[in-house]
């Protein structure tokens, strides 16, 4: 049996008396593209924060390549190959686009020298189609380009697992199509991708497997086609009343 | 940022101007040159934590004062002067590294206040620990029985040496992984951690660098004046002055802080000499105006011209 690249085993996170995550267990296999969905406040971003060490899990185990990384700091996660993007983009605003991505290559991927890091960064920029803007200050980019910059920065870190936290939020539909094509290209390179997303259309077009969080609990994990028909998932998204009506309609 | 040759040329020219003062000027000018060099070294040191990393540190006077005391105590125990300065540098650097692990958890205004408290705390400890430091009576250092001109020249070169060392360290850091990482932390500390920068270690390194040269300067200053006491060694005014100098010249640039120190010391001397009653007020107004209208510091004037020339020359 192949060892999963990332495995969560009974992971919980409490903020005081509030349980943000309760006993979450799942695993990601190498090269998989998995969608993580759930209503607002379900704990999706908390889950990513716990995996990358921005928050410390309250209990449970987080295994990356069979190694327990539950106590790692964010910079250690980055060096191990656990990269992420933020829902609200986090550039180094006064630096150029190229310098931003160079930081990822130099510190995340551990490039030998600044020169090597710059070459790697340029490749990432070409990959996401931002090479023409390499010398612009990051603060001058429009939102769609900033999201691409975020992707380029994560890619330059040479990640094994990439967690994309709502990379499509705030983009228009043609920009979303561009972003989707890009994510597919990233997955083709063998990077394991976890997409956190609100838009069902986006998740369904990318991933064959879905995880559903609701009130901090993982309520479903399986093939996308089954998940969208799952009663509990519909209930979580649309409320019990609407789910019941939908069920009646389908039976009539 | 990296303007190779003009940078070195300006640096060497500035150091030469200061170093040649004994050839043609009187002791007052040489003394001023030594003070410029000393404050230049302090401001250049501050630049590591305040300019590169963006942490508004006000601990300069703590490092300077501790350096003075460690050096003085060593010299009083018969350790030769040069070695005493080296010991002061190492001891204060270690102190800064330990302290940094604690107060660098604070950010922004909280860090600024915490770093000021360090100065006061050091002053209080030194003035209370009479058995070691002589308390409020201060400490006398072994006198150097040299002619005044020779003494002055010697300490001018010592201060210039410290300034040069701090500038070389700045250039090395600016070109290294460390400098790049510190600039990332300045821009966005969370994002810096997310690309794999060990932000805690980097900040401690910057804070330690910012302490080292201050300690050497403090120890040398103690030997120069021959007497130190707690109020004179741990001055909040000095701590604030150094920050103003760095901002005045251009924080985060290589030569800016030293240039700002020179401008500040010269203005201060000018106003002392000509407006004895109003000098502080006038200096204050000048600083406010300069920082208000030149937020990038004096160096940004030259940079702007340089950039204009580049664009004019068709890239």
Report low-confidence residues of chain B grouped into runs of 5 or more: 310-315
Number of helices of chain A: 10
Apparent shape of chain A: globular
Count of beta strands of chain A = 10
What kind of sheet is the major sheet of chain A? 6 strands, mixed
CATH topology of chain B: ABC transporter involved in vitamin B12 uptake, BtuC
Report mean pLDDT of chain A, rounded to a whole number: 87
Number of domains of chain B: 1
Percent of residues in helices of chain B: over 70%
Bin the helical content of chain A: 40-55%
The proportion of residues in beta strands of chain A is: 15-25%
Return the string of H and E elements of chain A.
Answer: EEEHEEHEHHHEHEHEEHHH
Distance between the termini of chain A: 44 Å
Please tell me how large the radius of gyration of chain A is: 19 Å
Spatial sequence of strands, sheet with the most strands of chain B: 1-2
Structural class of chain B: mainly alpha
Largest sheet of chain B: 2 strands, antiparallel
Gyration radius of chain B (Cα, Å) is 19 Å
Q: Please, what is the average pLDDT of chain B?
A: 88
| Poorly predicted runs of 5 or more residues of chain A | none
Supply the number of helical segments of chain B. 16
Structure, explained:
- The complex is a heterodimer of chains A (about 250) and B (about 325).
- Chain A is an alpha/beta fold and about 250 residues long.
- Chain A has ten helices and ten strands.
- The mean pLDDT of chain A is about 85.
- Chain B is mostly helical and about 325 residues long.
- Chain B has a single domain (about 1-315), classed as ABC transporter involved in vitamin B12 uptake, BtuC, CATH 1.10.3470.
- Chain B is built from 16 helices and two strands.
- Chain B has helices at about 5-20, 20-25, 25-50, 60-75, 80-105, 110-130, 130-135, 150-175, 175-185, 190-195, 200-225, 230-235, 235-250, 255-275, 280-295, 300-310; strands at about 140, 225-230.
- Chain B has a two-stranded antiparallel ribbon.
- Chains A and B meet through helix 2 and helix 3 of A and helix 9 and helix 10 of B.
């Amino acid at each position: 049996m192949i060892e999963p690249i990332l495995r969560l085993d009974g992971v919980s996170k409490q903020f005081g008396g509030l349980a943000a995550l309760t006993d979450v267990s799942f695993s990601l296999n190498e090269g998989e593209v998995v969608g993580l969905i759930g209503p607002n406040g379900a704990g999706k971003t908390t889950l990513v924060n716990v995996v990358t060490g921005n928050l410390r899990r309250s209990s449970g185990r987080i295994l990356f390549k069979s190694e327990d990384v539950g106590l790692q700091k964010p910079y250690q996660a980055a060096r191990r190959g656990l990269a992420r993007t933020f829902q609200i983009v986090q550039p180094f605003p006064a630096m150029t686009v190229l310098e931003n991505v160079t930081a990822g290559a130099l510190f995340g991927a551990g490039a030998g020298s600044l020169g090597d890091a710059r070459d790697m960064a340029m490749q990432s920029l070409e990959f996401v189609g931002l090479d023409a803007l390499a010398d612009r200050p990051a603060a001058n980019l429009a939102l769609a380009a900033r999201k691409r910059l975020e992707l380029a920065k994560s890619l330059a870190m040479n990640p094994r697992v990439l967690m994309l936290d709502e990379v499509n939020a705030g983009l228009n539909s043609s920009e979303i199509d561009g972003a989707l094509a890009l994510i597919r290209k990233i997955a083709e390179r063998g990077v394991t991708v976890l997409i956190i997303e609100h838009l069902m259309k986006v998740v369904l077009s990318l991933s064959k497997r879905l995880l559903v969080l609701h009130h901090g609990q993982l309520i479903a994990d399986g093939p996308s086609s089954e998940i969208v028909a799952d009663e509990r998932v519909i209930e979580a998204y649309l409320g019990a009343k609407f789910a019941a009506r939908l069920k009646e309609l389908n039976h009539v | 940022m990296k303007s190779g040759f003009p940078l070195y040329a300006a640096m060497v020219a500035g150091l030469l101007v200061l170093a040649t003062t004994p050839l043609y000027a009187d002791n007052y000018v040489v003394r001023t040159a030594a003070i410029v060099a000393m404050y230049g070294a302090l401001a250049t040191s501050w630049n590591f934590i305040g300019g590169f990393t963006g942490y508004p540190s006000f601990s300069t006077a703590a490092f300077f004062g501790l350096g003075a005391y460690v050096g003085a105590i060593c010299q009083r125990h018969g350790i030769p002067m040069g070695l005493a300065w080296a010991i002061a540098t190492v001891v204060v650097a270690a102190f800064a590294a330990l302290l940094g692990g604690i107060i660098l958890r604070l950010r922004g205004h909280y860090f600024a206040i915490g770093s000021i408290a360090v100065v006061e705390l050091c002053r209080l400890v030194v003035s209370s620990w009479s058995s070691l430091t002589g308390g409020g009576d201060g400490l006398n250092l072994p006198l150097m029985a040299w002619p005044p001109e020779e003494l002055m020249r010697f300490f001018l070169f010592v201060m210039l040496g410290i300034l040069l060392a701090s500038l070389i360290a700045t250039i090395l850091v600016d070109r290294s992984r460390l400098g790049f990482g510190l600039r990332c932390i300045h821009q966005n500390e969370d994002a810096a951690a997310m690309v794999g920068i060990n932000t805690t270690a980097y900040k401690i390194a910057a804070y330690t660098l910012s302490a080292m040269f201050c300690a050497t300067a403090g120890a040398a200053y103690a030997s120069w004046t021959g007497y130190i006491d707690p109020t004179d060694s741990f001055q909040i005014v000095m701590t604030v002055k150094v920050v103003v100098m760095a901002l005045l010249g251009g924080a985060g640039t290589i030569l800016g802080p030293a240039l700002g120190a020179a401008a500040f010391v010269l203005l201060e001397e000018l106003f002392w000499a000509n407006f004895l009653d109003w000098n502080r007020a006038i200096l204050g107004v000048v600083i406010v105006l300069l920082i208000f209208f030149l937020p990038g510091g004096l160096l940004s004037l030259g940079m702007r011209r340089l950039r204009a020339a580049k664009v004019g020359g068709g890239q």
